[in-house]
Task: structure prediction
Amino acid sequence: MEKNLASEPDRNQITKAILLVGGKGTRLAPLTNHTPKPMLKVAGKPVTEHQIVKARDAGITELVLATSYLAEVFKPYFGDGSKFGLKITYAVENEPLGTGGAIANAALELDLEPNESVMIFNGDVLSGHSLQSQIALHQKANADVTLYLTKVVDPRAYGCVPLDEEKRVKAFLEKMENPIADTINAGCYIFRKNALQQIPVGEVVSVERDVFPALLSKGAGVYGYLDTNYWIDMGTPQSFIKASRDLLMNPHLSSATKGVVGEALIGSNVQIHPTAQVGGGSVIGDGCEISEGVSIFGSMIGENVRVGSGSQISNCYIAPNQEVPDQSVFSDQIIGE
Ligand code: GTP
Result:
């Protein structure tokens, strides 16, 4: 039986976290040309806000935002965190350090006890998994690292992470045509300080490609917390639109949407013709005009958009200030960026 790196058990509540929000979000371009992916709004709030609130609700009191791409937009919104009920600081990478390098850089902001563990979140994941249960496994296993894993029907697009009977991670396998497991990395990790210290500081490092394989080869105790509740990675335009729709239709998924959940989230100064129908988890931005006979389903409509009469829009994102001609029919599209 392999030994964990950790010698002392960690029975302490985890109160510190790092949120990785510095990626370029290339798959979501052009939406990410001027707004970093974590600041895009789903169900009316930035993705990062949904995650911060979830972390706070699980007992996190201090959180570092690891920023790089368009780093300057985070602080004006989140400030010192007091509005959100926790302390927020910022670790800025002038050149992106990759997911692993970002973790090592952000960890410098946290004054960690020798045996303390930290939660780490990818900034583009929304999940219904219980952070407390993930923490409980980490502590019970006396793990060095505990990863949140989920199952997907088609794991070919993901690296897969097989587990043994004791929930110990056996391998980190790159994307492959015939995956040997359907369990994948779901983008939320717990690292104990000793495992964090294995990541080189100031270098470009990938947590998936470099850090996890290196920890496994050193015999570290890397465990997988498998949870098949709601999970979405908002890396693509369709999954981004879906996430917004899902949050509005399933109020329990984020307490950041308290009071605004339902079939539709309507901004201020919006005119909706009495014969128009808006639903299915749609967001209508401020100042929009929705004309006669329009149907909008599961879509995100930016500010000051005018939708011409008779148009049918489903599962779309429409950029702000667009003029949608009468009788338009759009589905599963990004319009006007
Ligand atoms: P794509 O370019 O579309 O792949 O998106 P991405 O840049 O967000 O990359 P990916 O989805 O692999 O990133 C996972 C998480 O890590 C996201 O929340 C990113 O914001 C974050 N991330 C990726 N690279 C870096 C980096 O170099 N520095 C920091 N601070 N965060 C990063």
